[in-house]
Amino acid sequence: MTDDVEYPRDQLAFKHFFCGESGTVDPDNDDDFAKLRSKMYKLVSSLARAYADLKPAFDDVGYSKEQQDKYNRIVKDYMDMKDEIGLSSGDFIDLKQYDSAMRHLIDNYISASDSEKLGDMENFTLLAYIQKKQTEEAKNGDSDSEKKHTKAQQNVAETIENNIRRKIIEKTPVNPKYYQNMSELFQTLIDERKEEVASYKEMLEKYAELVTQVEEPENSDLHPASIRTSLALCALYDNFDQNEEYALALHQAVLSTKQDHFRGDLIKERQIKGGIYRVVQKFKSELERTEQMAIVETIYKVVKEQAEY
Distance between CA 267 and CA 255 in Å, rounded? Predict the structure, then answer.
């Protein structure tokens, strides 16, 4: 599977092979990379289970000390690769629970080595992970004038970028306009990182600021104070004219007409759309009815993505 990984076949090369190059936006290729990673995860997990089953009997089946060391090293190398790719791609959340029992078996048989690790994100939010890296850089004496990024720093940067990108993609249906803006800002940061226009420390600060905006749009200065009280309000404001009064009226219309489990229930959905339509009639009175109805459908698509509704 990994014969085509480009030389020097280091962490960055494996990351590009399984995740694509950071900043490349191609949904079709993203799906291909996801399938490739899924196949790799299954193969490595199968290898690890077979190893865990046979390891206690290595001496009994006649493996020499050299052979045992070889298989110990091979399995650990593949496990490390799997963990790093899972971390870099943003798959680590799914893998953590899936592999817990198997990892316990491996830990019983393989001693820790001095292999290079990008970091452990299992107990960190993405923002906390970036802040942890900022602290590490401060301890290492990173200077704002040092703009040439090391290979290790590029590895960490791409890990952060892949995870930011995943978050933006996941959140886009909830607030398309807002996260489209975040995506454009994110691409600018990637371009700046590749051109090394800022030091690594400055780059981490920009990533931290972006993650805050991605995770907490309700705290963004882009929204009026009355809109920041609700993520749903933020979505209505951002996607429909950025009109405070209009957004508040739509929000109230949904709250006053929605019923439990309305998604997929045509009667309950029509009640909400009726409430939205009355607001659209008031604020878009100059439009034809067919145009108003089209706006209602567009608004409802955003409404049904809001968890608070």
Answer: 16
Question: Torsion over CA of 131, 94, 178 and 161, rounded to 10 degrees?
Answer: 50
Minimal CA–CA distance to 46: which of 78, 94, 1? Answer: 78
Q: Where are the domains of the chain?
A: 11-109, 126-215, 231-303
Angle (nearest 5°) at CA 241 between 273 and 223? 105
CB atoms within 10 A of CB 163: 23
Burial class (CB within 10 angstroms; exposed 0-12, middle 13-18, buried 19+) of 234 = buried
> Cα–Cα distances in Å, from 56 out to 33, 44, 79, 279?
36, 19, 19, 70
Task: Please name the amino acid found at residue 82.
Answer: K
Q: For residues 38 and 30, give the distance between their C-alpha atoms in angstroms, rounded to a whole number.
A: 12
- Please state at what angle helix 65-89 crosses helix 100-109, rounded to 10 degrees: 150
Measured CA to CA, the distance from residue 240 to residue 232 in angstroms comes to 12
- Locate 5 and state its tokens: 């990984």
**For residue 88, pLDDT beyond 70:** yes
Q: Which residues contact 231 (CB under 8 A, 6 or more apart)?
A: 174, 175, 217, 218, 306, 307, 308
Radius of gyration, CA atoms only, the chain: 25
The mean-pLDDT minimum among 46-55, 57-66, 98-107, 172-181 falls in 98-107
Max Cα distance, the chain (Å): 86
pTM of the model: 0.64
